[in-house]
Amino acid sequence: MHNTLSSNKKLGIFAGEGKLPIQVALTAKEQGYEITGFALSKEIKESLASFVHEIYEITPGQIGKNMKLVKESGVKEVVFIGKVPKINLLKNIYKLDWVAIQELSKLTSFSDDTIQQAVAKLVENNGASIISQTKFLSKLFPDIGVLTQKSPSDDEMADINYGFRIAKELARIDIGQTVIVKDLMIVAIEAIEGTDEAIKRAGNLTHKPIVVVKVARSNHDTRFDVPTVGLNTLKAMNIKNNGGVLAVAANETMLIDKEEMVEYADKNNISIIVI
After folding, report:
1. Residue 70 domain boundaries
2. What pTM value is reported for the model?
3. Which of 207, 204, 198, 158 is nearest to 179 (CA)?
4. Are residues 34 and 133 in the same domain?
5. Mean pLDDT, rounded, of the chain
6. Distance (Å, rounded) from C-alpha 113 to C-alpha 265?
7. Helix, strand, coil percent values for the chain (each to nearest 5)
């Protein structure tokens, strides 16, 4: 029944790094969408190509060209999905086109939220609307509780509760979404480097099991960058120490490859808890 609607439902996927763009494409096809991909690298284009009707490789800073592609493709709804490291944007600042320069010059800051709202306005001005990532990824939000064989200790629960309060405040002021705690002390906070690199930095500082807490802003715009953890997050925790806790906020953080994460955690003395 869904397939009969495909000609009337055209979805554009702006695809960053990771597995999520493919999962969005698969779910969208099940929902009857015809999909156009806008891939942020050659590698992403190759991995997504077989799941979409047509696909273009784009550069984030070429906003004028990208918006022209959206309009010409006839796409009326778009979803932004996958990791786009901000550090890469800084490294490639010289690749900005005139439209990007004009739009960026209007911004009061280059925080994630400010940039995302500007992008949303541009997309809407070009005849399309941005829809929530969660429309296609609702199955990736785990239920509240401990997912692993090992539960956090009382001391670790104290670190989780403390870390949750701090992480929520950091997210509110748009610094990052993750804090790493040990013995009620903040060891590291996530900034531009991303979650996994912040975890590795904490491991280098402590050489002991750590508590990682990941949340979203209270008013988080689910059209952009829903907090996500995956197997690489656990591997980052396990480089310098054996064990620890990964705590994620319920209904806010997605788990990629949940079964593989739980299996890895159980083998490496790590607890995963949804709070």
Report:
1. 2-137
2. 0.79
3. 198
4. yes
5. 86
6. 32
7. 45, 20, 35
